[in-house]
């Protein structure tokens, strides 16, 4: 609009106001009082929803749902569809709520509206959200929350591996809800008892990865259940999409808690057989004439990796995360002592520790470390302080000079267990050995050599409680002499009592 037109409109408005003022004066009405009254009426209208509703021309054929509540059905005056709609006033939020009843039948509309009234009025009374979400929408909200907690430092959030597990568990729940044909149903409309069979359903499903075979662990299934329930309580209930009564009911599976070592420990004889195979056959040139020299150097690196695990108690992942600068000399007054010459300190930083706590490991690895550097040197790599000890030496790889992954070491372990014949031997006893088994082997050897358990716990980055729970059977065997002290006397006493009884008869 042009400036000239604006001036013309303003002039017209001023003229109308002047005429209105003159008419009010002729009737004896104070113009200021009149304009105040008009303003008051407008304010009252704005604050009165019923007044607005009454004058809303879109409310056609308005029919109360109940006589004593502010809820009714109606047709829209601006459409010719004939569809009935529902309207209820939210007294707590002071706003109207509308829903389409998706029917032109008035009787059906009333019936549906009464159900809606009970649902919505109940939510209003309990302070719950009126917005409805599906299971997958809830999972999306929880996933977003989990992503915000991802960290590389354990116990400061969740590490990427843990997030991956949680995401997998959420996927299981989504598949289950789809099989129940409830994936399009709002979570507040899913009866809690309908999901009780989740654990049984999950146990019956085959694992979907080649790395994991056999039956699912009931402990892991129950962990899956815990994650699902945690999601509902921390998102759905806390954000008032449902009440606590609407949290899914899921039956957990009973299982026996196994406090023994979960991974088999090699015996001393088995360990000796294995390391001698690595030393005299696996890395020996005379036994591997057709193996490229680069591969032999990689084998030497793997051998030292295994032997460091067995001589330090360090976790495999932690060892792969150790940098050159994090291996230091031991601080000891008796540096010249023969036992200390081989010892070095592996310093585990917080973000490399499973527990999220830094620690120092004392272990005899000096010569092993020298052999590792020597092998890498032949492959054209000289370690810098920031380099990982066990790094990828393949120059044309995108992972060059990055830390080796556990999968590479694990695959070599499987291959050497098979080529050494140990895999077949272990299988006959339904046993298996993993990279972690060498950590347990270290703990076993330290305990039978009577290393104080609190020092062992500190070196391994675990607790005395965990060591006692995990290796208690070893301690029992070690203390057999104490436990069975004077048992011979009890045996003799029992025999004497029997003889006395026979004599009396």
General description of the model:
With 505 residues, this protein is an alpha+beta fold. Helix content is 52%, strand content 8%. The strands form 2 sheets. The chain has a 4-stranded antiparallel beta sheet, with helices on both faces. A 3-stranded antiparallel beta sheet has the order 5-6-7. A hairpin with a 6-residue loop joins strand 1 and strand 2. Helix 5 runs antiparallel to helix 6, helix 16 packs across helix 18 and helix 17 packs across helix 18. The longest helix has 24 residues. It starts with a helix and ends with a helix.
Kindly summarize this structure in a few lines.
This protein has 505 residues and is of the alpha+beta class. The protein has helices at residues 3-26, 31-47, 49-55, 106-126, 135-148, 160-179, 198-204, 218-237, 268-282, 293-312, 316-320, 338-341, 366-378, 406-419, 422-428, 437-448, 453-460, 464-478, 480-483, 487-504; strands spanning 59-64, 71-76, 84-90, 95-100, 327-329, 343-348, 359-364. Strand 3 and strand 4 form a beta hairpin.
Evaluate the radius of gyration: 39 Å
CATH topology descriptor of the largest domain: hpI Integrase, Chain A
CATH level-two architecture of the largest domain: Orthogonal Bundle
Let me know the largest β-sheet: 4 strands, antiparallel
Q: What's the end-to-end separation, in Å?
A: 129 Å
Percent in helix: 40-55%
What would you give as the CATH superfamily of the largest domain? Intergrase catalytic core
- Strand order across the largest sheet: 1-2-3-4
What gross morphology would you assign?
A: elongated
Give me the count of strands: 7
What's the average pLDDT?
Answer: 81
Order of helices and strands: HHHEEEEHHHHHHHHEHEEHHHHHHHH
Strand content: 5-15%
Under the CATH scheme, which class of the largest domain? Mainly Alpha
Supply the number of helical segments.
20
Low-confidence stretches: 1-5, 49-55, 501-505
Sheet/helix structural class: alpha+beta
Q: How many structural units, i.e. domains? A: 4
């Amino acid at each position: 609009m042009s400036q000239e037109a604006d001036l013309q409109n303003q002039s017209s408005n001023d003229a109308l106001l002047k005429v209105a003022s003159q008419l009010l004066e002729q009737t004896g009405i104070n113009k200021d009082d009149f304009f105040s009254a008009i303003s008051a009426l407008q304010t009252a209208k704005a604050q009165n929803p019923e007044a607005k509703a009454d004058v809303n021309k879109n409310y056609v054929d308005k029919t109360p749902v109940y006589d004593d509540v502010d809820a009714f059905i109606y047709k829209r005056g601006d459409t010719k569809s004939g569809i009935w709609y529902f309207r209820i006033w939210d007294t707590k939020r002071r706003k109207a709520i509308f829903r389409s009843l998706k029917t032109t039948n008035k009787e059906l509309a009333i019936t549906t509206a009464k159900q809606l009234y009970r649902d919505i009025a109940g939510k209003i009374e309990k302070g719950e959200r009126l917005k409805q979400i599906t299971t997958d929408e809830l999972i999306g909200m929880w996933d977003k929350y989990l992503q915000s907690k991802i960290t590389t430092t354990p116990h400061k959030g969740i590490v990427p591996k843990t997030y991956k597990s949680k995401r997998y568990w959420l996927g299981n729940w989504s598949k289950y809800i789809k099989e129940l044909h409830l994936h399009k149903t709002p979570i507040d409309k899913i009866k809690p008892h309908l999901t009780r069979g989740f654990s049984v359903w999950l146990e019956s499903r085959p694992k979907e990865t080649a790395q994991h075979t056999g039956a699912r662990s009931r402990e892991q299934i129950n962990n899956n259940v815990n994650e699902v329930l945690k999601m509902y309580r921390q998102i759905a209930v806390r954000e008032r999409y449902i009440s606590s009564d609407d949290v899914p009911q899921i039956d957990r599976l009973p299982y026996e808690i196994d406090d023994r070592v979960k991974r088999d420990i090699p015996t001393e004889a088995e360990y000796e057989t294995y390391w001698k195979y690595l030393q005299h056959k696996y890395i020996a040139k005379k036994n591997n004439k057709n193996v490229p020299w680069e591969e032999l150097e990689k084998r030497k690196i793997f051998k030292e990796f295994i032997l460091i695990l067995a001589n330090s108690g360090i976790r495999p992942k932690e060892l792969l995360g150790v940098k050159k600068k994090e291996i230091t000399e031991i601080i000891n007054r008796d540096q010249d002592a023969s036992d200390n010459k081989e010892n070095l300190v592996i310093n585990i930083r917080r973000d490399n520790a499973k527990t999220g706590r830094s620690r120092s490991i004392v272990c005899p690895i000096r010569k092993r470390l020298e052999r590792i550097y020597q092998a890498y040197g032949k492959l054209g790599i000289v370690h810098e302080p920031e380099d990982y000890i066990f790094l990828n030496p393949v120059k044309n790889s995108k992972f060059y000079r990055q830390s080796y992954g556990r999968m590479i070491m694990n695959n070599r372990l499987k291959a050497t267990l098979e080529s050494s014949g140990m895999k077949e031997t272990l299988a006959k006893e339904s046993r298996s050995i993993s990279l972690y088994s060498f950590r347990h082997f270290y703990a076993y050897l330290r305990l039978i050599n009577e290393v104080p358990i609190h020092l062992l716990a500190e070196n391994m980055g675990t607790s005395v409680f965990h060591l006692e729970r995990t290796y208690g059977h070893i301690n029992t065997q070690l203390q057999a002499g104490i436990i069975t002290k004077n048992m011979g006397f009890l045996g003799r006493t029992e025999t004497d009592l029997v003889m006395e009884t026979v004599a009396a008869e």
